[in-house]
Amino acid sequence: MYHVVIGVDDNEERAVACARAVADLPGAASDTRVTIIHSFTDNPSGASAAQIGSVREATEYLEERGIDVDVTESSGDPAEQILDVATAEDANLIVVAGRKRSPTGKALFGSVTQSVILNADRPVMVAGDTEN
């Protein structure tokens, strides 16, 4: 069984891009298991990860293709939470979304994707962004 952890934020297009990248991996869908993690930085309404549109869209996309999906949620630094789940689940691959940002934007505002890439102890795939 090939286990993939997908880090998902609130953006539905990026979440589906990650799901599409996983569905396009070689091998049978029945041999792939996915854990989608959404890390809340602010959750005043008390929503669960499964209620977030981006998580629902990615889950539906994968399940329609016969891929087993679990959803988990956390709070705190998203990059740390993605890495923690990947370690705890002994994932084979981490998938995160990329987006176009200037070097200054990355330096000023940080980048979850960049932090995951730099600190992961396993392969990381960056799914393309559909936004400009």
Automatic annotation (TrEMBL):
It comes from the Archaea. InterPro entries: Rossmann-like_a/b/a_fold, Universal_stress_UspA, UspA. It holds the Pfam family Usp. SUPFAM superfamilies: Adenine nucleotide alpha hydrolases-like (SSF52402). Residues 3-126 form the UspA domain. Belongs to the universal stress protein A family. This is Universal stress protein. It comes from Haloplanus litoreus.
